Amino acid sequence: MTRVLVSGEGRVCDPDVPLLHADDLGLLHGDGVFETMLVRAGGVCGLARHLRRLAASVGPAGLPAVDPAQVERAVGVAVREWSSPADGVLRVVYTRGRDGGDGRPTLFVSITPAPARAAVARRDGVRAVSLPTAYRPGLAATAPWLLTGVKSLSYAANVAALRHVQSLGVDDAVFLAADGTVLEGPRSSVVAVIDGVLVTPRRDDGILPGTTQEALFELAAARGIETSESALQVSELYDADEVWLLSSITLAARIRVLDEQVMGAASVLDVAALVAESAGS
Ligand code: PLP
Hints:
InterPro entries: Aminotrans_IV, Aminotransferase-like, BCAT-like_C, BCAT-like_N, Class-IV_PLP-Dep_Aminotrnsfr. The chain has nine helices and 14 strands.
């Protein structure tokens, strides 16, 4: 099948038949969390990391605890149904359930074909612009309601940012905090190679901790490649050996042009190969 839909109970559903109630709070308020994973060669890349992040997201989002075994069962059913040899995008969606309902969360798993733009970005890299946000460093610790480290269903601002940059004729964006600190992309983590060191913004401050970046840094550490989590200014990106946007579906896309500046492509590290190797872990 080229589209798969599985209910939280592990029942294979017709993807053309509606699954949700119109009063589901995931739909009405974006009140829920999700995970997006790459399905490749009959397996799910980084499943354990995604399940860990899902479990870590439900607490801050005030959702009922998620049963990882139940999610894993539904994921297993979905992957067995996915007969396409092409890459797929597997989503696990977990919402607060129905407005005024019995408090039972909604859970479902879907798989759809990976978008063509992912392979293009992996192959050709991307042009990006930096975009301001109102975030200031340190806010996450005092404003937990912002759900900054949570993969929340409230994604409209992220996709609006992508529409905005597309209207400017570029492919992607890098969000900056109010003081210019680099945060993340609307759907990716930022990793720079600076003097041969892999550097990413602090994972606990205003960004979603990426599973792809995490897997890369673990592999890098095992290979003796230096890594660092630290505050970065956009000017440091302009001067970096290379800058990459990392995410579960695209894996690694090098930023070719940022804010109209042609970016370096001179890393001693083969970041794309390291990401491809670590993505399964
Ligand atoms: N940051 C944001 C805002 C994202 O939406 C994503 C992925 O969708 C990421 C980072 C990268 O996370 P991952 O590598 O787990 O896909």
